[in-house]
Request: fold
Amino acid sequence: MSELYRLVYASKNLFHGSEAELTAVVGQILAASQRNNARADVTGALMFNAGAFAQVLEGPRQGVEETFERIQCDGRHGDVTVLQCGPTESRNFANWSMAYVGASAGGQARFSRLAAESGFDLSRLDGDAVFAMLHELVLEEEGVPRSLVAAPPIEPAEVHSPAGLDVEQLKAEIAQLRPATAATLMSSPASDKRTHEIESDGPRSLTTGDVKRASKGTTDAALYVLKAALASERQRTSDLRTEIDALQVALASSEDQLDAMRVERDRWAGRAQLLATAMAQEAGDIQMTSQRVGLFEVRLNGQASSADAADVFAA
Reply:
């Protein structure tokens, strides 16, 4: 993976049918997206209404671009418009291969407001606003309190903790909520009034309404604890996914550098081979020249000896 990439787009819905048929189509799109995105390491979210799609894709650039190409070739999408695209440092949908959001009335209303602000022109939609809307809706529809969404990320030491979610501790925290809720109930104004009645009229038991209020308070507190644990685990998963993405980018970069070094090595090896061949050829030429010079000298010496012998005989 050379880099982490994000793309936000909107498109017109070209499929027209009954509400049941539209629901079936969206189900097919989601199933295909989740299956293909898991293979391509792409995450994101999809929003749909009767008139348009809005979607965010994030992951390796190649995976995002290939996914977007398939979307552009899908006959159910028309006027596909890129609202935002480019490198990103981390994922915002690390826990969802493809989340489906906006089915609620509130989500549809927010999408409609954004569309109205753009004059129902896809090219004028604010990419940042669409992205923020999709991310907020994913968390809202999972029931995560805003206070937890805005909570600071967990420390790296917790991210690397192999223990993960401590289920037993979570159970203990929920179990402790019962006496805490009962104490809160007894300290309420209604409880003060009842205490006065008990003191004046004799002992009285708690009413059914008291028990229901206590039970509801315990349930709400338990849900909050569970949602807090879910938010913590989601943050842990997101941080680990970010770390994995960074390692993959670093690995890809190292592999690219290694490939470049191999190419350079092969280039210099080729040059060295050519140089060695040239030097060997030159050495051969020098040796051959040396041999020729030696033979020539021998011949010259032989001719000189013959001339001296002729002189001697002449004398």
In short: The radius of gyration is 40 Å.
